[in-house]
Design a protein that fits this description.
The structure is a homodimer. Chain A is α/β, with parallel strands linked by helices. Chain A has 9 helices and 8 strands.
């Protein structure tokens, strides 16, 4: 779609772009028209030349003494990051975290369209109060025909994480968003992103504890 | 508490430890008694010598030709990571993601004890169906006296992220777990962890799109 998308961005750049977007969206809501990289730099503590470099990946250039047009920059970032078009997703494992993600309507503002949930426990499958159908895992192949998805959000117990990812990929899923603490392996060509909630908790706990003993 | 906690672990080690824990918990559930670093290495695609080095931070040593005792290693990892003792937390911002995290009972298995939620919208504050009290943000100071917490989970809109963090820290919060796309700044000594859900989504989308055009 976007010819810029065949450039594989460095991950640090990709991590900073959503910060810029969050910041320029705030400016836009305040009806600010232009923003300099110096101003973004001060707000986010990112080097101004790094900001200019990151934004040049998007083909966005600031004008001398004026800076970036806030409205245009907002759209460019949102489009580039993929937030302005819907990406279909399944939630695999509809326990407490899976249900929570299905219920988090905010994700749809960032282009995530959860169309179905899968589980193996009949008590969960029979409940349909989450706004999307919850099906048995072995229906994933058929569901791919009727309501396809590209992304599988993995929120199963760790002991079935690898197996569940394998099934989802076998059914045609192209990207795994792994929320389990298990280190899932995928074949080359399958997109993999780990959101390590537990690692972040461990980081907070150990830092808090070390602060206490100091 | 634990004298090992005054060692500040390198972040990559801290990221790998929850993988080891998830894996040895699976082995424990299968009643496996011992595991070698070679076996962990094969399962997780982490170099065996790296595993031995990481685990030595915990004071855990494997025995020649036998390896690590699964039960002891599980406890050592869980204790070290802080998952086996409760850490009190507030959720600041009880919109869809905040509510979802409050409802995610699974976090309590990892030592996170959410004791209150805070918001500024009266329609949300009057609802108490989440199992914990939802209070007005300006009650955070009083709540700190009656039901103190160390951690603030930040799930507010990005435009009030910095201000909300400042208030929480002013009230005595020691760690911010930032789920907003805004880059929140904190004073030295305050623990900060970012869970960049939106950056991970952007990573998935851009990788998917680049795969399509190739």
């Amino acid at each position: 779609m976007n010819p810029l998308h065949n450039i594989i961005l460095p991950e640090p750049t990709l991590r900073r772009l959503p910060w810029y977007l969050a910041y320029v969206e705030i400016l836009r809501n305040k009806r600010v028209k232009y923003v300099s990289s110096t101003r973004i730099s001060r707000a986010l503590s990112v080097d101004a030349s790094q900001i200019a470099k990151d934004l040049s990946f998007l083909g966005v250039k600031g004008r001398t003494r004026i800076g970036y047009e806030v409205e245009a920059l907002t759209h460019a970032l949102s489009d580039f990051l993929g937030f302005s078009r819907a990406h279909k997703a399944y939630v695999i494992g509809t326990g407490s975290l899976g249900k929570a993600l299905i219920r988090d309507s905010g994700l749809s503002n960032y282009g995530l369209d959860i169309v179905a949930g899968f589980d193996i426990r009949p008590d969960i499958i029979s409940r349909e109060d989450l706004g999307v159908p919850i099906k048995h895992m072995n229906e994933i192949y058929d569901t791919m025909q009727t309501t396809p998805a590209e992304i599988a959000i993995l929120t199963v117990p760790p002991e079935v994480a690898q197996e569940s990812a394998d099934i989802a990929i076998g059914a045609g899923i192209k990207a795994i968003w792994n929320f389990t603490p298990y280190r899932v392996k995928v074949a080359e060509g399958v997109v993999m992103a780990n959101t390590s909630i537990y690692a972040h908790l461990a980081l907070i706990y150990t830092r808090l504890d070390s602060a206490e003993v100091q």
